[in-house]
Amino acid sequence: MIVLRSDEEIATIRKAGEITALVLEKLKKCAKAGMQTKELDAIARDEILKKNGYPAFKGYRGYPANICTSVNDVVVHGIPSERKLREGDILSVDIGVKFRDYFADAAITFGIGKISPAAKKLIEVTEKALYIGIENALPGKRISDISCSVQEFVESNGFSVVKAFVGHGIGTRIHEEPEIPNFGPPGVGPRLERGMVLAIEPMVNAGTHEVEILEDGWAAVTKDGKLSAHFEHTVAVGKDGAEILTGK
Ligand code: MF3
Ligand code: CO
Predict the structure, then answer these.
(1) Residue 92: which H helix or E strand, with range?
(2) What is the number of the ligand 1 atom nearest to the C-alpha of 61?
(3) What pLDDT is stored for residue 215 in this prediction?
(4) Where do the domains of the chain lie?
(5) Which residues, in sequence order, are CB contacts of 56 under 8 Å at separation 6+?
(6) Three-state SS for 191?
(7) Which of 51, 181, 235, 245 could form a disulfide with 19 if both were Cys (CB 3.0 to 4.6 A apart)?
(8) Which DSSP letter does residue 62 get?
(9) What is the pLDDT, as a whole number, of residue 36?
(10) Confidence at residue 44, expressed as pLDDT on a 0 to 100 scale
(11) Cis omega (within 30 of 0) for bond into 178
(12) If you measure from the C-alpha of residue 175 to the centroid of ligand 1, how many angstroms do you get, rounded to a whole number?
């Protein structure tokens, strides 16, 4: 069942989303070569708690950290660790915040220092794919119209969409119905309606779409070792389009 949220509920998710956006911005500013990813995790935890939010990933299905930090060929769910960031790395940061019983979820990818033109293009295409998906989250359209628009844009730029992970509904749980793949034909799946709150999250690989899970049971890496990027926003479907609740 897909829950339709009231304006009041959406206002609370917007607050969770504001915290998420603030913390992502802060991490983007302070991530530097030489820093351990677990330092970013600690900063995120402190900032979220300071804003009266709660780090939603911590303990979710046993997840051991507050945020996900996925470097280079890590697609998603990288566990913050002693790994030091290096000049030229690309880093995806994924954050979930709970605020008064409601959740928001967002992710960004950015470079550490100077990055290659190929890495820059991958990041730009992935971010643009997210905004194209959001533009297609219109009432009356179907879920797969989002999926299809993302896939078409990504593949027309020579990259591949990850199929092993999908976007999702969000609200009083971090993952709710419906699933939102980043691939597929248009015009199938549930019809979008005002009040649906969705986490749209393209994961885009420079090479093969195939991924594998590391021994830690969490981190997903590209099978060919090439780079991967991830952007995510939580949005609310309104009568004229989707409102981004986790930033701009
Ligand atoms: N944004 C991620 C997703 O929707 C959340 C990761 S969940 C955690 O899949 F398990 F890593 F916490
Ligand atoms: Co998500």
Answers:
(1) strand 90-99
(2) 10
(3) 98
(4) 7-244
(5) 96, 97, 98, 103, 105, 174
(6) strand
(7) 51
(8) G
(9) 98
(10) 98
(11) yes
(12) 8
* Chain centre distance of CA 210: 18
With 90 as the cut, is the pLDDT of residue 248 above it?
no
Average of per-residue pLDDT across 39-49: 98
**Fold classified for 7-244:** Creatine Amidinohydrolase (3.90.230)
**The ligand 1 atom nearest the CA atom of 168:** 4
Best of 60, 216, 231 for a ligand 1 pocket test (most atoms within 8 Å of beta carbon):
60
Give 77 Cα–ligand 1 centroid separation in angstroms. Answer: 7
Please tell me the distance between residue 106's alpha carbon and the centre of ligand 2 in angstroms: 7
Taking 90 as the threshold, does the pLDDT of residue 31 lie above it? Answer: yes
Q: Give the C-alpha separation, 39 to 244, whole Å.
A: 28
Residues with a CB atom less than 6 Å from ligand 1:
57, 60-61, 63, 68, 77, 94, 96, 105, 168, 199, 232
pLDDT digits (tens, 9 = 90+) for 108-134: 999 999 999 999 999 999 999 999 999
189, two tokens: 């799946």
Ligand 1 atom showing the smallest separation from residue 57 Cα = 12
